[in-house]
């Protein structure tokens, strides 16, 4: 029994969805380290044994059984007298329904099971498809301490925590699977403050770390005292084991000792999210590295820098794929970028395949004028070559299109949209420029790339161009990116009407044109590779529009 003190370990781990044995080993190793620190209890994140989000894996009976078997094996290991465990796992109840559960493992047994009550069904979440909602939970008894175990969404409304406080909980320990987007850490803090104000109880927030397809879980686990003061703050974007000491104070508990780290600012957080998402996607899917076309432009340059920060220079292969419209400046800039990053750099001219396509199609195209069809042959030839290199050597092709271009369809299907993953898919062009300049002046913790100027300044300052025809610039087809991005943020992030956007000073005809381009590019976006979610409304899991869609806002 615990008298008036106990030591808590918060395990901020990076599980892999579906790797139940590997995830159990992560918990096992965290428990071993916690035991060395004298911890009494180890708290881990939501569905840590399954990895979060498991999506329809939960519908597989064998998968749920494997997770439960792993939990029961970990329970047996607690018979050694070491720390107890609080872990998240899918759990099939006696009613044969599957729940998002948290289990308390201690003294060789599964001592308690609690089910998630409030299943999220918005944004990237659709838990109601695969889980059953549990009843309102009561606290569990841990060696004489009454602990409430709400799960993630359970604290975003007041019902669960109110029930736990009314039924005698002394402390709230919350396993979470909360993905990153801009300013998300502040949102979480405000939610936790609300629950602490409501209940008067201290609350420990344990979040998952790591990339899972389009989502990045940023960790940032923390705790608030019952008076709303910060008890401890763990880092974002890195695994960690946080140790804190707790002392009984009447009917509640006070954290006596816990480390507090400073969280990164928005620029660093966005950069590290892109790097973590890309790195985990490559490593968890077993690719030996990445290959990308390095054009001398800003998008491919920043993607190369992110790849080096995520994987190291030896796992990044850049290829320049020049054609007659490729400028000497672009060739020079790409070579300098590759040299600054220390990556392998090859040149593969595309004249022969492009001219071969043109010759093959000359009969069919006879009597027509050249247009974007011939321009796109260049992009598609580059895509074929990069995929061939990927097939031969196993490296994943990185896609390098930004959110602005993907919004309006300024990209070529089966050309520059080829690839397995895109770290800047959810960054607008203006954000890309800003982050490129930021990275040249900053070296975030944990990055594997070099410091200093890794993206040549000429790449950042020159006029953007796809170089698919003579003297082409992006602004031949698009408005200036600061204008385009503001309109797109209004349409995509805010769902504002044309009239509302016009009041911001934008031309009405231009807004209608951008809205039209946004809608007709939906079919392209459906075929695009996944990429890191940075904004609150990314293309894919968040913003879900029909491909066939004749609606246009004429307000």
How large, in whole angstroms, is the Cα Rg?
A: 26 Å
Write out the strand line-up for the largest beta sheet, numbering strands in chain order.
Answer: 5-4-3-2-1-14-15
Strand content: 15-25%
Task: Using the alpha-carbon principal axes, give the shape.
Answer: elongated
How many helical stretches? Answer: 16
Number of strands: 19
What class do helices, strands and sheet pairing give? alpha/beta
Uncertain ranges:
none
State the end-to-end distance.
67 Å
Residues in helix, %: 25-40%
Mean pLDDT: 96
Give a short account of the largest sheet: 7 strands, mixed
Précis, in short:
This protein is 36% helix and 18% strand. With 555 residues, it is an alpha/beta fold. The chain has 16 helices and 19 strands.
